[in-house]
Amino acid sequence: MPASNAISQAVFDQDQLADWNDHFTGLDAIARVRLALEEFPGAHVLSSSFGAQAAVSLHMLSQARPDIPVILLDTGYLFPETYDFVEELTQQLSLNLHVYRNEMTPAQQELKYGKRWLQGQAGIDQYNFDNKVEPMQRALEELQVGTWFSGIRRTQSTSREETPFVQFKDGCYKVSPIADWTDKDVYDYLSAHNLPYHPLWHKGYISIGDVHTTKALHEVEDPSEVRFFGLKRECGLHA
Which one is predicted more confidently, 35 or 9? Predict the structure, then answer.
């Protein structure tokens, strides 16, 4: 295990990062969260899309650090069920929710750029940057984040298969404590703690983003097409 307090926000060491990843492999997710909160630089935050299985990380982190800021990126095009889910979990878990958005309203963006999600991959990429990547970068800067927790998992898509437990991204340490979890691990945790899936999960939505670029399994020929018309799976936050 790396020496106590070995990580500093000012110094990034690739070998040290590899040591932490090796050590995290031998820990369970709750132990990873506790150790990262103790040893990794503050301020600590958790980002969440309040997607299909988001209650796992929201519960795990809020149990370990009740006041941890939870960052939600609101594009203005989330499903009504997602907004209801945000409200439900915020109340149930007493979340310290911080909502970040594009500084232009959705209507202003459409007036200026049109419906960019219909303009091919280049349009989708720019839309995602303006509505997700830039607001997240702004959140990290304004909250002076040293460690960013994420609930992404390796089994969610091929683009996430190599997700490490710890990486250095956007000027801070990014920790993915359930990176190695399976769908069964998620189910077991939700069941054990009486936590809900996103309401659209039961209607065949396995990955839930904006209304205009999200489809249920029964609406597509291949699971890779449930987001962004199959052109991509990542919005840019976790690439």
Answer: 35
pTM (predicted TM-score): 0.91
Structure tokens that stand for 5 in this block: 């307090």
Q: Does 175 reside within a domain?
A: yes
pLDDT at 76 over 90: yes
| Percent share of the chain, pLDDT over 70 | 92
Q: Say if 17 falls within a structural domain.
A: no
Give the residue numbers marked as catalytic.
235
Residue 59 is assigned to a structural domain of this protein: yes
Q: Which domain holds residue 100?
A: 29-200
Which phi-psi region, left, alpha or beta, contains residue 30 (left: φ > 0; alpha: ψ -120 to 50)?
A: alpha
Domain total of the chain: 1
The DSSP H or E segment spanning 73 is strand 69-73
- SS3 string, 50-72, reads CCCCCHHHHHHHHHHCCCCEEEE
